[in-house]
Amino acid sequence: MNYFLFFIKKIYKNKTNWIPMILLIVAISGILFLNNSTANKVNLGAQIKENINTNSLNIENSKKQLKTLDKNSTDYTLLE
Prior knowledge:
Layout: H1 2-13, H2 18-41, H3 44-68, H4 74-79
């Protein structure tokens, strides 16, 4: 344990080691922040809400298209 503490003190006293350590901490923090923000966008709840909105828009568009088609056409039977 003393050997480990000796090396920690040695690293702490050397000022040139501070820059890489600070950069490492900033890089790790940035990666964790980006991962967290992406996880909020890609979770299952967000995907379900997006699918529900897309489906409702598609249903509305299909209803509008049905109103414009002739009832005897083949497209009308496919959309019905």
